[in-house]
Design goal:
By secondary structure, the chain is α/β, with parallel strands linked by helices. Helices cover about 40% and strands about 20% of the residues.
């Protein structure tokens, strides 16, 4: 059972309070390049992203936010470090969220100025603690980066905001180390009821980053911890979104697009399962309706092994079958299996097939 946290809103997207886990990513273009940033945000939206974070390192980037805001639909979160004036400028530009640490943007009066304006606009602030930027005093006290040190840092920042009467808060405590991250979030979840943003920071490229993220986020989500997630990859951000959805679908927390079931192949295979499954995935990548599709290499056992699929194919020597819900509905030549599967899916009223 998921932990019930306080609800906050990024625009019209609810975070916490029993709302579904929200998929987030970050634009990887220079924010001041409005055209490229808008194009990337639109691509992220098409991929299923629900919240986008933008780096705001200087006033030029801050000035670009209002132009970006006018051209996109997704809620925007401005990522701020060190300069409270950038946070104020981002708020005036119309962002729906801030990501900052109150302790590094200046004295109490500067924190209070940001919190006051954010409260007036009902804009939440995410406190983002990273293992790579812990306070030296905490590193000394805890003997390095520990779960307790990460949580203590987060709680310090929470107290700074609470002291100026601000409670529209979301928190993250990220590390690139999976066990450390899991331990920190478990401890934090016990101590606060604010919504939590999950991530394995700097997870890496390709399958390495995917595996680390899936393990870390999967453990926490399975334990009911987490209200938003980002899969941090050294890759196109749309890949982050696709991975996030696969994690959520695997845990039955959210459903979007296809769930592809395919056999690992063996000596009984008479068709090229790998090539067919890859093409099915490509041709159905724009489908947003939940749909379970199976690609199996054995015409005898395939339909039974994938009986929970909505639709699928199973190949044999020179021929194969199209099946729905485990029952064969059509026998076709092997070279026609892919196109007959797609035609069957299209006949079901599914949209987005290439």
């Amino acid at each position: 059972m998921r932990k019930l946290t306080r609800p906050i809103f990024l625009g019209n997207v609810q975070i916490g309070g029993g709302a579904p886990v929200v998929v987030q990513s970050m634009a990887k273009t220079p924010t001041q390049d409005v055209e490229r940033t808008v194009a990337q945000i639109r691509a992220l939206e098409e991929a299923g992203c629900e919240v986008v974070r933008l780096a705001v390192p200087d006033q030029e980037a801050a000035r670009a936010l209002s132009r970006i805001r006018a051209q996109v639909n997704l809620p925007l979160v401005a990522d701020i470090h060190f300069d409270h004036r950038l946070a104020l400028a981002a708020l005036e530009a119309g962002v729906e969220g801030l990501r900052l640490n109150p302790g590094n943007i200046g004295d109490r009066d500067k924190v209070e100025a940001v919190a006051r304006r954010a409260r007036q606009l009902q804009v939440p602030i995410r406190i983002g603690v990273n293992a790579g930027s812990l306070e030296p005093e905490l590193l000394a006290r805890y003997g390095g980066v520990t779960a307790e040190a990460l949580v203590e840092s987060a709680c310090r920042h929470v107290r700074l905001l609470e002291a100026v009467d601000f409670d529209l808060i979301k928190i993250s405590v990220k590390a690139s180390d999976v066990p450390l991250t899991v331990a920190a979030y478990r401890l934090l979840s016990q101590r606060v009821d604010y919504p939590l943003h999950l991530g394995i920071t700097e997870a890496g490229p390709g399958y390495r980053g995917l595996v680390k993220s899936a393990v870390g986020l999967g453990i926490l989500l399975a334990e009911g911890i987490g209200d938003t997630i980002r899969v941090s990859l050294t890759a196109d951000p749309c890949q982050e979104v696709a991975a996030a959805w696969e994690i959520l679908k695997a845990l039955k927390l959210r459903q979007r697009g296809i769930e592809l079931i395919s056999c690992p192949t063996c000596g009984r295979c008479e068709i090229d399962v790998i090539a067919i499954a890859s093409e099915v995935e490509r041709r159905l990548r724009k489908v947003t309706a939940p749909l379970k599709v199976a690609v199996m290499g054995c015409a005898v056992n395939g339909p039974g092994e994938a009986r929970e699929a909505d639709v699928g194919l199973a190949g044999g020597k020179g021929w194969g079958v199209i099946f729905c819900h485990g029952r064969p509905v059509k026998k076709v030549p092997a070279e026609r299996l892919l196109e007959e599967l797609l035609a069957t899916i299209k006949a079901m009223g599914v949209e987005g097939i290439d």
